[in-house]
Every structure is written in structure tokens, then in C-alpha cells.
Task: inverse folding
């Protein structure tokens, strides 16, 4: 029975990811950026270490976006009308996504700019 529960846990998680991709524009933007980063990584032949950093950054941004989506859904469910504290909660969750995205963009630039410069030298 434990194995079946574990399988259902994974199915639930994938359903949540699917819901976010079906309903959230920002996660689609992050997915498009991921495709570009992966293509650039292959084209510029980044190292294994650089792939590890980029993978962690991609996972962190997607996870932050999923947490933000969950927080927004929960807040809207329990407080369907406007409330200042709920607005602050949502703003903080969105801020977490922004910080994660900026940090990931900086990491990407640190990896890719030297390689792009090397291509043109």
C-alpha cells in the first residue's frame, strides 16, 4: 500500500505542475527562458559544473513560481475579497520569485558572457 501512496503523491505533484503551466503565464515565460538557456548551454559547450549551477537555478525559479501560485490560490480561497494583509502576502511571494529570477539571471550571465565573448574573439 505504501508504494501506491507514493505513486499517487507523484501523480498529485505532476498534476500541480500541470495546473501551474496551464494557468500561469509567468511559469510559461520561465519555461521559454529555460529552453533558451539549455540551447545556449549546448551551443556554447558549458562545463558540467556550469550545468549543475544552471540546473539548480532553473529548479529554484520553477519551485518559487509554484510556491507563489499555491500561496495565491490559498489566499484567494480563504479571503476572496480584497484585504491589505493578503495583498502583502501575495506581494512577498511574488517578490521571492523575482529575487530568485534575478539571482538566476545573474548566475546565467556570469556563465554565458565569458563564453559569448570568447566566440567573438
Result:
Amino acid at each position: 500500500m505504501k508504494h501506491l501512496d507514493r505513486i499517487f503523491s507523484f501523480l498529485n505533484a505532476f498534476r500541480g505542475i500541470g495546473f501551474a503551466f496551464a494557468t500561469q503565464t509567468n511559469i510559461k515565460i520561465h519555461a521559454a527562458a529555460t529552453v533558451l538557456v539549455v540551447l545556449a548551454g549546448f551551443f556554447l559547450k558549458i562545463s558540467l559544473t556550469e550545468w549543475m549551477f544552471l540546473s539548480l537555478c532553473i529548479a529554484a525559479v520553477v519551485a518559487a513560481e509554484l510556491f507563489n501560485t499555491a500561496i495565491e490560490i490559498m489566499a484567494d480561497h480563504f479571503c476572496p475579497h480584497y484585504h491589505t494583509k493578503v495583498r502583502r502576502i501575495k506581494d512577498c511571494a511574488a517578490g521571492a520569485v523575482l529575487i530568485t529570477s534575478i539571482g538566476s539571471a545573474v548566475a546565467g550571465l556570469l556563465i554565458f558572457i565569458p563564453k559569448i565573448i570568447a566566440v567573438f574573439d
